[in-house]
Amino acid sequence: MIRAIIDIGTNTAHILIADIQNRKVEEVLHKERHYTFLGEGGLETINDEAIERLKFALDEFAKALSIFNCKNVHIVATAGLRSASNGPNIQEQINLKYGWPISIISGLKESQYIYDGAKQAIAIDPGTSLIMDIGGGSVEYIFSIDGKVIHQKSYPIGISRLYEQFHYNDPMTSKSVADMENHLDESLIGLWNAISVQTKEITFIGCAGTFEIFLTETSKSDIKEAYQKVDVKVADRLLSEVINKGLDERTKVEGLPKERMKYIVVALLLINYMTQRLDSKHFIVCKYALKEGAIIDETLFLD
Predict the structure, then answer these.
(1) Helices (H), the chain
(2) Are residues 139 and 96 in the same domain?
(3) pLDDT tens digits, one per residue of 6-30
(4) Whole-prediction pTM value?
């Protein structure tokens, strides 16, 4: 069955059109992303310029749906619309203009979709794993042992929020970096308490988003390759390359998407914070995340 899922995040909007068989993505037919930056100007209210960027992305998605003659479509919106005072109004506008059903999902549902997506790409059930998905408004963590979820939560520490709170100097000062790390310590107490009882090595899995900057060009272009193992030294080197640069200098760094340059420092600091706390020597970049989990949810596609 051909289905499409549209994921409206805080900074990006995605569409996935795929053939679904037996609650699994059998074949990816089309993927597309547009940077909408709904959080620019603050997450309390999404401004008119951001709404126009979102409408442009949805217009482009409508073209793709037409090409594949796909009418079985659902939209899931996450922290951006979830947090904004005008989120419900935007939800109504989208539904009226495009006729697509749209759900503003909870952080818990978001983390469940991420877990369901990652499980299709990686054999998570045996062993101990921590899945992380970095968004603009929130970050989701799912900690599991032998297929049993021990801790699953969405935390309001997305990179747009961290940028507004700590990246007020460009480049960031050492004090700002320390303040951000202290903030993460306080915010993630529940996660670290859940993990503290675990003595076995934890497989650290980063889903989509910022983590995709670590994919090789071959892996990016290979639609069948669902994940890639990355040495943590690669992330450390990239952080050292950009942390002391202002925005103009960062945009000159080759191999990085220009659209990510504003938030790249706090995103890399967040990843570095995790690998340091977990004492990871490597991490896995999983290309499957929320979209792949949501698209197999039968309840979203009921007639």
Answers:
(1) 48-67, 79-83, 87-98, 107-121, 159-166, 174-187, 189-196, 217-221, 232-242, 247-250, 264-278, 290-294
(2) no
(3) 999 999 999 999 999 999 999 999 9
(4) 0.96
